Fold these 4 entries.
Entry 1:
Amino acid sequence: MALPTIKIPVFQQRYEWITKPLDLMEKSARQYPDLYSSQILGAKEPIIFVNDPQAIQEILTNDRKKFTAPGEENKTLEPLVGDYSLFLLSGSRHKRERQLLMPQFHGDRMEAYGELICSITEKVFSQLPQNQPFTARDVTSEISLSVMLQAVFGLYKGERYQQIKRQIIAMLDVFRFPLASSFLLFPFLQKDLGAWSPWGYYLRQRELD
């Protein structure tokens, strides 16, 4: 039996994934409750969305060799994570790099990360003004960025901490709005037309030391 596919043009699929992804997934799931495929990421092979519990269990517990290697399917993330990110590697190279990282995600290290995340979260929330509205995105971004700088880069405060923090924020602000994500899904938009063009600005922010 052929795998069900979303019955709308590929360009429209990508546009809806950028502008209203939840609506697209809910609409598709109503039409195909168990699983369906889509070309939203522009990969060579379609992206398969699985909703059936038994199928999900099969995927998570079966031989990984039966499923597509992650590298090729994550190619759209290359401008964000670089050429050598674990997200983009496949085969023996992916396995080797993954084994090098795994000791950092076991035992005492994970407990320490948990304590760090709780501490940063409490600090960020303690600084929020009382009885005033706030934007959840800004708060969660501040928490995530602080965790990244401290847990990954080993930076806690000082000029270097603030410098890297500003540069990461400036780089990611290019994708602050949904339509800006179209740069990732539509490679033909990745044109450097100078520092004032969106893609040119992003490239320059990415190259800052």
Note: The chain has a mean pLDDT of 80.
Entry 2:
Amino acid sequence: MQFNQKHLLGLEDLTEGQITQILDTADNFKEVLGRKIKKVPALRGVTIANVFYEPSTRTKMSFELAEKRLSADIINFSKATSSVKKGETLRDTLENIKAMKVDIVVMRHESSGAHRFASEFLDCSIVNAGDGQHAHPTQGLLDMMTLRERWGTLRGKKVTIIGDIMHSRVARSNIWGLTKMGVEVTVCGPPTMMPVEVAKLGEGGVKLEYDLRKAISGADAINILRIQLERQKSKLFPSMREYFEVFGVSCDVLKSAPEGCLVLHPGPMNRGVEIAQEVADGDQSVILPQVANGVAVRMAVLFLIAGGTVEGDELN
């Protein structure tokens, strides 16, 4: 079946069927990644530009690896070594990249909405690798893939997202993706880090809870977010120590969740701030599987955006 989206700008743009199609395709690519030769010619002849205006470790590396596994041609852009330092605008940078006949632009930008702006004048496909506080769709997808692997289905499950909700594009993408897939979502964090519109996000909205133990008491999984100090314009909590005492997930706090509750974190982790070391490295943690699934999900997104299809187990 053809994936009828030219871009991936945010999960709010996708249907449940399209999200399922991406996850199913990612399952196929995960099998490829388990082979001795971890490469397919699916995107041979396709040129992809990785345009990162913000620092990134996991997202940038996994997109690059996904592109190489698909046999695509790659060019990399870094703000620190580009003409942006000389005053070049985002539009001019992207127009120049377009002139080089690039097929797909994978972009991370500090401004919310930068990708929608770019989609208005670029004729190539755009994949959102994170824009400001708005969205991080491939992170949401890899989180869902990780949970679906463990549960078999997402529908009817309960997930609690904990931490700096206000500044988190990961939280927003998770809320949109999970609620579309029939998951009940609860958000928990300091009132100063909770956006006023949060209860209306997603399909059918989300539950709001400020008591951490209550928030996780019925959760099948918890997704722990870091405090994004780089996005905060003022101090929103007294100290790191006090944050951990109230909203940090320790082994003792985790006892309030049902047995077998899964622990996710999009990274980078601040151990001892939002998550205890023992929880991050514990048996309930699926943090490293999240990273591994990021490559398969990004392979699936790039493959489908480029017009690829999957018939049975065959990639076409």
Note: The chain has a mean pLDDT of 93.
Entry 3:
Amino acid sequence: MKAVLVRSLDPSRLVELTHDLPAHAVGEAAFVLRAMARRFPPGTVHLVVVDPGVGGRRAPIVIACRDGSFLVGPDNGVLYPLAAVLGIREVRRIRPRPEDSAVRVGTTFDGRDVFAPAAARLALGERAAALGPRHRPHPLRVPSAVRTADGGRGEVVHVDHFGNLITNVPSEWVPPSAEWIAVFVGRSRPRRVRKALSYEALGRGGLGVLASSFGTLELAVAEGRAERRLRVGTGTPIRLDWTAVRGR
């Protein structure tokens, strides 16, 4: 994909956001993309390839956003949450040019053969309308947490490179006075864990709840992996209670 892009674009303008998301995890990728890519400047061309349906019936699309940005990738929902934040202006189904189709090898690498050429064309100033006909995108909603009388209920939406469990429960929900939180993960018994401002404050091997860089709560083990400690992953239900827990 980079080889295709740098044939026509300045390599110094390419930013690789992540390559370590789980394969086929469309929902998790959509959450990460919405959280991270929205910080890029208006007019950015975002190229996203999390595409378990490659070569199948899902459409290759470009979403033109109201801030001048473009989202290029498969129409499986991965682009939709970010597009909803940036504002959708129009959606086009990518129709590869004959010169691109002529060099296509197989049907399993649309990132190289379809999406990268389209992204390069947009970065060079071509209008989205030139890439193909109008299209109605497949929506995908990132799951939302529910605020309860004693805390919040949601799920693990991302496991990061360090094994931290990123939830969809907003960190701003936790009152500053809370020091301990009862954590219910899946069907397991509640764990009483510390709310901390940093990994260092937990002490090596300590399990705690922190405000993540996503603006939501995360479960972390300092210098360890929370997903192994708790034996859970993306999609696991989680409930947090910070009203009934007192100190040690």
Note: The CA atoms of residues 77 and 140 lie 5 Å apart.
Entry 4:
Amino acid sequence: MKVIGSPLGERDIRSLKLGEQVLFNGDMITGRDEMHIRALSLARGGGDVPREILGSVLFHCGPIMRRSGEGWEVVAAGPTTSSRMDSLEPEMISRFGIRAIIGKGGMSREVSEAMAATGCVYLAATGGAAVSLAEGIKKVTGVEWEDLGMAEAMWKLKAERFGPLTVAMDSSGGSLYENVRLSLRR
């Protein structure tokens, strides 16, 4: 199994092959619908977004967090259904240079096209494995937009051997989900 780490460059991303299993080390952020809407709204209006979004590994996750001393710890961190962000993700990828998205269920053809254009991959995480995945998150390094609520805030995380994750949509437009759809039509 291949181990990848942040920061991820375009060359790193384009070397990943459809179906390949990876573990991730490094910085990532969480983001669901409201985080996407807030980030895009700010950027469109000329405002600043947290620098951690730029070139990020974006985990579609609404984690369950617990206060721990002065900070936070992750109790559970399962992937959320990524297709919920289909209408927002192409702009997120192109505007902020997102390098990898972690989620479940795949994303649209439009997202796949944005990934191919900029060098981004979709890494599928196993649904129902929230506690196991949380074990791969070693530190919460911060939080933005807490006013959105725990699940919708942007959590900044440090991961170690996070996964396993499957390259389910690669940077050349390949998609395991599309391959299944095509095979079912035959």
Note: The mean pLDDT is 96.
